[in-house]
Amino acid sequence: MPPAETDATMSPVLRYLDEHPETDSIEVVLSDLNGVLRGKWLPASAISKVLGGQFKISLTAVSPDIWGRDVPVLCEKIGDGDGICTALEHTIRPLPWLERPTAQILLQLNTEDGAPWGYDPRVILGRVCERYRELGLTPVCAPELEFYLLPEEREANGTPRLPATRANGHCQIGGQLYSTEVMQEHSELLHAFRAACEAMQVPLDGLVKELAPSQYELNLHHVDDPLAAADHAQWLKQAIKGVARKHGLIATFMAKPFGNLDGNGFHHHVSVLDKNGRNVFDDGTEAGSDLLRSAIAGLADTMADCMLIFAPHHNSYRRLWRGVHGPLQPTWGYENRYVSIRVPNGEGAARRIEHRIAGADANPYLALAAILAGMLHGIDNRLEPEAPVNSGKVDGDPILPANWYDALRVFEQSDFIAGALGADFQEAFREIKRAEQQEFTGAVNPLEYDTYLVMA
Q1: Are 135 and 258 part of one and the same domain?
Q2: Are residues 284 and 224 in the same domain?
């Protein structure tokens, strides 16, 4: 008889099931390249197949378009064969908003010979993290996400509705930034968000009423593991959507749900520790270290190449129009929210970069991979940034791709993307976005009918 497993050696999944015998189902999932979770539901009694490395799923499970359809070019290239999934056992979490007791486990997708699959977003981020480990460096990351809470019912033309508030009735002139009065109106729902995050061990920090009506921001605590930080952001989005759905609402992370209101951003606070745990961005001065400026220069130098990752959808670029807190220029500055790369004030030990370009619709794994790779590009090459912009916005024409189509053209020609994130990823993401762009290009929208049907 083999010796009984102790608490220290027991599989985290088996330990969880032992502590939660009521668990009915287990959701085993991967993040696709659009950041959508895809996978299967299994009875808890069947989990041994997953833990034993016998669970298969199509290699194209991580590369459908946003509508969940196969992209023919990618299917033909790889034969649409199966890959083998590795259970990331430490990621098992409950899904507390579901009626039946359900847990979830994140997976890693591998080829049949066991090699990590280069289309898997978590694999892509892991590759970048490995480069930091080789240099004895550890990124510390804290994401921030903005979202709207909207009723399920839409207007007749499909436009989402903004809910009224007791504070302002149906007036939608402003969203009552930082208003605790408005938050108290929705206290039951907001506390349910926090409870879900606690159950899922998502390190939620603050919850803030944002600028627009029914818009909120959630902040996560910093962690010294980028993969964990991206997992937290993915779980946070899932928890907010799930709890909101249970309360009869839509939580949307769409970058720009309303043309005349603020968009939803996905800001990343990042610092880097050396092998002694010292923040390499801190040199004892208010300006920060040479490595801080090199990391900023790397982000600026690679931002155009990465725009398709930071703004991956047709709607994403509406958020980046001039005049918003997300300029189409790779600017930086100290304590200035009108630039793309902000260095917040504070103690030197907490010196960090706030990357402000990505929208809340970006894939958490890909966005963080692009940011960390850009920083490393600047550090490796000892780049120097342009002068900081420390007050107000910068006028001038966009330097970054200003629309989805230009962003794809820059992305597919980028040597940086191929080298830092993988040529296999570059090819897959390119084909997904091409397929999506074809659908949008062929669609006729209501404004076109209203403008041209009679008068043209």
Answers
A1: yes
A2: yes
User: Residue 109 is part of a domain; what is its CATH number?
Assistant: 3.10.20.70
Give the pLDDT score at 3: 43
Identify the pLDDT of residue 79: 85
Specify the number of domains making up the chain: 2
Residues 6+ apart with CB under 8 A from 447: none
Q: What is the pLDDT of residues 203-259, one digit of tens each?
A: 999 899 999 999 999 999 999 999 999 999 999 999 999 999 999 999 999 999 999
**Residue where a domain stops, chosen among 85, 117, 149:** 117
Given a cut of 50, the residues of the chain with pLDDT beneath it are 1-4, 323
Instruction: Write out the residue range of the structural domain in which residue 62 sits.
Output: 12-117
CB-based contact 354:267 (threshold 8 Å): yes
pLDDT of residue 323: 46
- pLDDT for 67-102, tens place per residue? 999 999 999 998 889 999 999 999 999 999 999 999
